[in-house]
């Protein structure tokens, strides 16, 4: 198989998963559980401001965005883990495909996750 075909197939197998929470304890619990289970190779966090409408009311909250780098085959297990540990009734859990990336990093990402 050509090297470019292998790289393209690998990129199609990888994804980013996003979730947010307003609770630092939830952040740490989810991160530790996901890394211990090797459901994500890397998890980054960013402080954000979220504006949304929930149950008919407008909200503006300070939250933490969690960015998981993983394989698509891990998504369901990661979604189940996040939703089971999350402090929100309906947490955001979104999968985004990785379409391009530095090949050595993508190789590390795939080798660092076990699903």
From TrEMBL:
User: Do the record's keywords include Iron-sulfur?
Assistant: no
Q: Which domain of life is it from?
A: Bacteria
Instruction: Please give the SUPFAM superfamilies that the UniProt record associates with this protein.
Output: GlnB-like
Name the Gene3D superfamilies on file. Answer: 3.30.70.120
Q: Which UniProt keywords apply?
A: Plasmid
Q: Per UniProt, what is one GO molecular function of this protein?
A: copper ion binding
**GO terms (BP aspect):** response to metal ion
PANTHER family tied to this protein: DIVALENT CATION TOLERANCE CUTA-RELATED, FI09726P
Entry's family note: Belongs to the CutA family.
- Give the protein name, as stated in the record: Divalent-cation tolerance protein CutA
- Say which species the protein is native to: Vibrio aquimaris
């Amino acid at each position: 198989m050509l090297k470019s075909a292998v790289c393209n197939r690998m990129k199609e197998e990888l994804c980013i998963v996003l979730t947010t929470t307003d609770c630092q304890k939830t952040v740490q619990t989810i991160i530790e559980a996901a890394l211990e289970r090797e459901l994500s190779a890397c998890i980054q966090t960013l402080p954000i401001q979220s504006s949304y409408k929930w149950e008919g009311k407008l909200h503006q909250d300070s939250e933490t965005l969690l960015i998981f780098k993983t394989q698509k085959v891990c998504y369901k297990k990661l979604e189940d883990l996040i939703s089971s540990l999350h402090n929100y009734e309906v947490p955001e859990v979104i999968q985004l495909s990785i379409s391009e990336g530095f090949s050595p990093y993508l190789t590390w990402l795939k080798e660092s996750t076990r699903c």
